[in-house]
Amino acid sequence: MDEFAKSSGLFDHYKALQLLKLSPGADFDGHLSRFTTLIRAIQREKGSIDDRETAAHWYNSLDERGQDDIDRAPAQDVKTFVQMRERSRGFYRSLKKTWKANAAGKSITTNVATAAGPATTTQVHQSLPTQPASTRPKPSTFWDTTAQRPADGVTDGSIFNLDFIRKFRCQRCLCHDHSTGSCKQSKMAFESLRCARCGTHHDPVRFPEAHCRDSNCYRCGKRGHMSRACPEPLPQKPDTTPSSSTGTEGAKIQAN
C-alpha cells in the first residue's frame, strides 16, 4: 500500500511538472518557486533526480520565447540547470522591463490629463506622435518587405535564423503575399537546412524530445511543431459543416 501511494504521488508530481508553463507576463520568481517545490517533491519520492533531467523539465516549463533564447545560447553557457535557470532569469527580466516601458508610454496621456487638466493634455498630445485610429491588426514589427528569399541552391543554413525568417509574412515558404497559416506550398522551403519542428537553423538542441513538444500549429491544428515548420501539404480548413442538432432546430423553426 505504501509503495502504491508513493508511486501515485510521484506520478502526480511529474504530471504537475509537465503542466507547469511560464506564461507571457507571469512572475518569474513565482514560477521558479513552484518549479523548485515540484522538483524537491520528486526527489523525496524518487530518491534522486539528476541535473540533466532537471534542466530538461526547466526547458519544457518555459514558453516558446524562453526556449528559443536557450536554443540560441552557446552550449557552454547552458550546460547545467543552474546556468539555464540564470539565463532564463535575465531573459524574462529584460522582457518585463520592455512590457513596463510600453505600458508606461501608453499611460502618459491619461496620467498627465488627470493631474494637470485639459490644457496639459493638449500639450502632451502635441509633443507625442499621433497614431491613426484603426481596427485592423498591426503587422509584425519584424516584417521587412524588402527581404528577399534566398536562391534555391543555397547551402549555408546559418542564414535561416529566427531574425531572418521573421522578416517574411509567410515564415514557411519565405514570401510576402500570404500568411504562414494559409501557406499552400507542399513543404517548408529549404527544409534540409531548417529544423523540422521550429523551422529555424540551429545547433543540435540538448533535449530533442522537449523541443516544441507543446507548440500548437495553427496551420494544421496539430501539436509538436510550429506553423512555419508544418509538414502538411495543405492548411487545414475550418469545419463549417452545421451539426445535425442545428439542422433539426432549423427545420422545426421553418415548420412553425
Explain what this protein looks like in three dimensions.
- There is one protein chain.
- With 256 residues, the chain is an all-alpha fold.
- It has 2 domains: 2-118; 138-238, no CATH class.
- Helices cover 46% and strands 0% of the residues.
- The protein has 8 helices and no strands.
- Helix 5 packs across helix 6 (118-127).
- The protein starts with a helix and ends with a helix.
- The relative contact order is 0.08.
Helix fraction bin: 40-55%
Decide which structural class fits the backbone: mainly alpha
Largest sheet: none
Residue runs with pLDDT of under 50 for 5 or more positions: 119-140, 240-256
Question: What secondary-structure arrangement, pairings included, does this model have?
Answer:
Layout (H helix, E strand, L loop, with lengths): L1 H18 L8 H19 L4 H11 L2 H9 L8 H36 L1 H10 L34 H4 L78 H12 L1
Helix pairs in contact: 1-2, 3-5, 5-6
Summarize the structure.
It is built from 8 helices and no strands. It is mostly helical and 256 residues long.
Keywords:
256 residues; mainly alpha; 2 domains; 0% strand; disordered C terminus; zinc-finger; CCHC-type domain-containing protein; metal-binding; Znf_CCHC_sf; zinc
